From TrEMBL:
Entry's Gene Ontology molecular function annotations: hydrolase activity, acting on glycosyl bonds
Keyword Cytoplasm: no
Domain of life (superkingdom): Bacteria
Protein name: Trehalase family glycosidase
Keyword Ribosomal protein: no
Pfam families from the UniProt entry: MGH1-like_GH
Record InterPro entries: 6-hairpin_glycosidase_sf, 6hp_glycosidase-like_sf, Glycoside_hydrolase_63, MGH1-like_GH
Record family assignment: Belongs to the glycosyl hydrolase 63 family.
Naturally occurring in which organism (per UniProt): Streptomyces fuscus
Amino acid sequence: MDRTAELVLRPARRPIAYDPAVEADSLHSGAARVLESNWTGRSTVPSRGLYPHQWSWDSAFIAIGLRHLSPLRAQTELETLLSAQWGDGRIPHIVFNPSVPLDAYFPSPDFWRSSTAGRAAGAPRTVQTSGIVQPPVHALAAWLVHCADPGLSHGRGFLARVYPRLAAWHRYLLHRRDLGGGGLASVVHPWEQGMDNSPCWDAPLARVLPAPARSFRRADLDHGAPEDRPTDLDYGRYVRLATDYRDAGYADDRDRAGRGGPGRGAGSFAVEDPAFNAMLIASEHALARIARELGATGTARHARAERLTTALLERLWDPERGMFLCRDVRGGALVPERSVSGLIPLLLPTLPREITRALVRTVRGPHFSLGTTTRLVPSYDLLGEAFDPHRYWRGPAWFNTAWLLERGLRTHGERATADQLRQSALESAHSSGFAEYVDPYTGEACGTADFSWTAALALDLLHDEPARDSHGVNDFKGGDRG
């Protein structure tokens, strides 16, 4: 059945009244319907129209929600993604479905040329992928999926099979992507960080010469309003960066960040991002738990997570703004833009108390206004010059960042704020038709409807609040616990 008509931008509307006792069953059944309709047999597409392939961090978030419907399907989701891992350890941000026409999505497999351009980096030969990555939330997802049904997990050898791949993924990021030399992983393309169009990228991208508009065709504009999507100029820069990276054989090394002239060469963009690294740290803690479950010790991984937390504080914390900022590795300075990325380190259980207090003040303060003027945390500073409540990652609120922040607030004892955010996320997911993202003030739907991670994370928030305190990130405090 052609579902394209169902996936166009929904008209703006105010959220409907939400009664938790009445609407929980409706939300559960609606979310389950979205995940079922987007299931392909081995993985889940983010949406049938705009995103018709498997995406990396989408699948991690989707698995977290699927565990409440089918732990087996949740395990399969992650296993399918990991089967496309490259020899150097990277998990590609897209795994392409060969049955989808090339013109359905750009950049398509014939742009990335993974099996040829990525041969030296160990790209798989039997499946086509992109050559860049996305945030490393996968080990945390694997641990939570295991906890949903430990008997099934042990019986299938789930953790034993995914652990080596996840460990290789982290080695790649910690060694090949430490482009700044300070211990943190760098992203080499805005799409890798996941918040594709954030104003945090404007300054680092300004030195990138955009690819000519005639050299590519944007398929995203077939499914979303142009005023909600990245501009042609920004998209041209994204294409240039991806082209240069591909033509360099998808090679990574520390001196890439300093090679090449402005706008050219493999090192024209390299950024240390707080959310990307916070998810890496949370997943290091999760890998420690997985190692312990498999009979090994997780002490070294906990210690590594603590070293990364220290590096995050030393390199990205800005005490004046009360939040973490991105670091432009090539320019050598922090990027003075406030985005939701700088709040995501609340996820980390061993942040100093004064840091968590400052982050909570910032979440509630005028730049994000959670609980006062906004229903969900905006993706960008409400007072910033680039703020737009509907344009992709330049202001709208997203459900994956809400999920991460809800866990972080709960981890640090901010239960009232966490409860408020959880309730708003459930209301907005339900009333928006599981929208891709929403207006942070009103919860009005933006982007594609029936979006998979919105449905999946709504399920997790609906069903897992009590359990998150017994096997969630709170468990990662203080050493190698069983």
